[in-house]
Amino acid sequence: MTHPTTITAEPGLPFVDIVREFDAPAAAVFRAHTDPQLFVQWMGPRSNPMHSVELDAAPGGRWKYAFRGDGDMEFAFYGVYHSVEPSALLIQTFEFNLAPGQVGVSSTRFDEVEGHTRLAVHEVYPSLEARDAAVASGMEHGIREGYERLDELLPS
Amino acid sequence: MTHPTTITAEPGLPFVDIVREFDAPAAAVFRAHTDPQLFVQWMGPRSNPMHSVELDAAPGGRWKYAFRGDGDMEFAFYGVYHSVEPSALLIQTFEFNLAPGQVGVSSTRFDEVEGHTRLAVHEVYPSLEARDAAVASGMEHGIREGYERLDELLPS
Asked: Which of A33, A73, B27, B125 allows an S-S link to B131, with CB 3.0 to 4.6 Å?
């Protein structure tokens, strides 16, 4: 079964909050976020498969993934892991190659209740303008469709 | 001459903004921020000298400095550099050992005009609560006195 994805971007605050439930244990949802061979299969919209991914999910480790755009255009997301608690928490910085010098921090919590997992992502942008630009870019579609792809990938 | 330090923590936003002028070129102010042997001489209040410092000021490099408190207490600040543009810009994450799992990002700009430098620091905390707790801790005194110590250290 697929659950709704709640995305909140309150006016006047530089945050994006995402909440989503999955019918799988936290260990499986966490693994899908940190194992590149799983991550590449679900993150992003169906229409544009990820073309490269590296995830060194340890404190101080780097992560990067990228999609191709028109022509030679590339959309790359990257950052550094700061906290990694297996099946429980990821805190990592995030940057986007088309917005240089804008460093955000996301915290992703994995809470398991009776075999189901509640995922809660808290993204902090460096300014209100950076947050608003990210939302205006159409990030919501990729997030929702990505989680639908993740539902299909998870053990049921 | 010593200039005033402007510290702004607007209610309802997770930011702290600091602006300070120095009667020295940007290269000298930048060096005082990235050379551990200079940094240890000015950062923090006069009453509590820094007892350890490591600054690997390169993208992906780590930084850490610490003060002693009562008994075995230590106050340690640490993080990872994300952008380093000599004499111009530092973007780095910051964490505090007494607030684990709270990762912030600071951007420090060094703008030189006619041999003087305008320093502008933009700190982004992961939540309003984390920002308010940092302000309530009395950070302002250490910042203002630190910059007075930096005035004394800079070439005039």
From this structure: B125
